Amino acid sequence: MSDSLSQFPIIDVLVVGGGTAGTVAAIKAKEALPNGHVLLLEKANVKRSGAIALGMDGVNNAVIPGHATPEQYVREITLANDGIVDQAAILAYARESYPMIQELERWGVKFQKTATGDYDVKKVHHKGSYVLPMPEGYDIKKILTRVIRRVGARVENRVMATRILLENGRAAGITGVNVRTGEFVVIRAKTVILCCGAAGRLGLPASGYLSGTYENPSNAGDGYSLAFRAGAELANLECFQINPLLKDYNGPACAYVSGPYGGFTVNAKGHRFMLSDYWSGQMMLEFYRELTGPNGPVYLKMNHLAPETVTEIEQVLHTTERPSRGRFHAGRGHSYGSDLVEMAVSEIGLCSGHSASGVRVNDRAETTIPGLYAAGDMASVPHNYMLGAFTYGKIAAGSAAAYSRDRGEPVVDEAEIATERARVLAPLHRKDGIQPHLLEYKLRRHVNDYLQPPKSAHRYERGLDYFLRAQAELDQLSASDPHELMRAIECHFIRDCAEMAARASLFRTESRWGLYHYRQDYPDLDNENWFFHSALTRTPDGEVKLTKRPVAPYIVPIPADELDSYRRLRIPAADPVLATT
Amino acid sequence: MSTPNESSPSDTPPVRQVVAGRLKFSDEREAAAAALSAPNRQTVRTFDVPVIVDETKCITGCHICVESCPVDCLAIDAAKGKSHMKYDECWYCLACEVDCPTNAITVKMPFLLR
Question: pTM, whole model, 2 decimals?
Answer without folding.
Answer: 0.94
